Amino acid sequence: MAFAGKYEFEGDENYDDFVKKIGLPSDKVEMGRNCKIVTEVVQNGNDFTWTQHFPGGRTTTNSFTVGKEADMETMGGKKFKATVKLEDGKLVAEFPNYRHTAEISGGKLVEISTASGVVYKRTSKRIA
After folding, report:
1. What is the mean pLDDT of residues 78-82?
2. Disulfide-capable partner of 43 in 4, 22, 31, 59 (CB 3.0 to 4.6 Å)?
3. Which of 25-47 are b and which e, b meaning 16 or more Cβ less than 10 Å from the residue's Cβ?
4. How many Å apart are CA 71 and CA 56, to the nearest integer?
């Protein structure tokens, strides 16, 4: 599955319930609400660099190889180790307190995070 490209936040579902469930600090909750995040994905085979650019200049980058453990960072800034897998065309990662999947559907980047039954969905349109 080809993920490479640049994607801009288009919409989300269930943000407030999800961030409460994972315990995101209130300053990060406000920063992330309807935030025009730009996600840039560089892919070379199974090697990925996944960068999220936030308004105001903050950037989070996770580099990983599918099937190999890598150092990662959550949207709240916590560092952890995870192995990203490819399942049915979706990238799947187990974060410390939620499961995250990403796929390309209809030319859009669709990310779904699930924590204790609460599902958060973020859709981003391709801009490059």
Report:
1. 91
2. 4
3. eeeeeeebeebebbbbbebeeee
4. 25
